[in-house]
Amino acid sequence: MTEIKLYNTKTRKKEVFSPLDADKVRMYVCGPTVYDRAHIGNARPVVVFDTLYRLLRHVYGADHVTYARNFTDVDDKINAKAAETGRSIRDITDETIGWYLDDMGALGAMEPDEAPRATEYIPEMVAMIEELIEKGHAYAAEGHVLFAVDSWKEHYGKLSGRSVDDMIAGARVEVAPYKRNPMDFVMWKPSKGDQPGWESPWGYGRPGWHIECSAMSRKLFGEKFDIHGGGLDLQFPHHENEIAQSCACCGEDTFAQVWMHNEMLQVEGKKMSKSLGNFFSVRDLLDQGYAGEVIRFVYLSTHYSKPMDWTEKKAKEAEATLRKWRALTDGIEPSMSAASTVVDALADDLNTAGAIAVLHELAGKGDAAGLKASAALLGLLSDDLGGWDAAIETSGDVASLIENLLEARKEARANKDFARADALRDGFAAAGVLVTDTAEGVVWELASDFDASKLEALQ
Length: 459
Hints:
This protein has 16 helices and 15 strands. By secondary structure, it is α/β, with parallel strands linked by helices. Helix 11 runs antiparallel to helix 12, helix 12 (352-364) runs antiparallel to helix 13 and helix 14 (396-414) runs antiparallel to helix 15. The radius of gyration is 26 Å and the shape is elongated.
């Protein structure tokens, strides 16, 4: 059996993955708060852990892997949107979940085996809070229930690598008179007016954010399971608080054994921000004409543990590559398993960039069957994601013109006329002709935004 190695955030080292039960491999990933469209940063963990899910299914068998990803459908942002629009909370969350599943499906993401909604697990949350109070790890105050961080001080902060004192000094914590310690976090809070709520031993109220994943994973997977994933932004406080609640309730060595976090996403080298005009939802990109498969390819081109930069250049290169691969594999039915070198790359802490390098090698050898079977393990070249790659009509005149201009570029380089060579290079890019210099020679491809008039202007 293939040996999988994963970087465990909790231990800060890459370890051989050894599931608690190889017949029941269990992975839980924090999902979205459903009040609006998912932005392209939200999509990165979806693609990352979808790829890990595919690898686990390949190694252990599809029937032996269970993947859960939750929906947070009770939250103050949802309440605010309901108040602003006059719509019901359920209407908003149902619509947003539908959008999310459609958009993530467009990126080739398989739906998880379990997709729990927080509002369907309120009794489990209440029961867990009651256990924590009984064990001295939580307390009720003014209609709230809070986790007592001091009761877990020896362990709190191990995931993020910070002490409680450091966290108090550096964190933005809510100042409230009912808190015994500034770091104590809310597990239950009172609801008023038209806020959603449920009856509880502490009055009418609703759960805090962190308790939901602890309660839902426990109900679905038991007190101990294999992998917990999410974006790096969730490491603290969300995941730190999940660990505290679950382990204080069920035992120090319970809950997730491996913690994985993907790094954040930038756009053209800058942090994504509405003020900078570079904030995009997945739907924005799809509506702008980017194929979901192209978006997925760009994500997978960077290792999940590294910051990822979404750029127009990367998207064009991804599109050109996928067009070539789809042309090569057109009509091919997968009749073999993924290449062992692709599996090995993914098994090495989900090295998707390394796996893509192997796909390039397979394409270079003309191994269409191997390419299609191996790409499937990364969620690429599937029939479901096809259709966007309809070939651009390339007339003989266009092809001849491109070849003549490439020859002119070659001559300009030989004559050290770098101004002319650079002008041709930039002109190709502006016209939507993707040119790549390889050891075997120059190859070119037309992008979806090919403009023949710009090409003709280079003569």
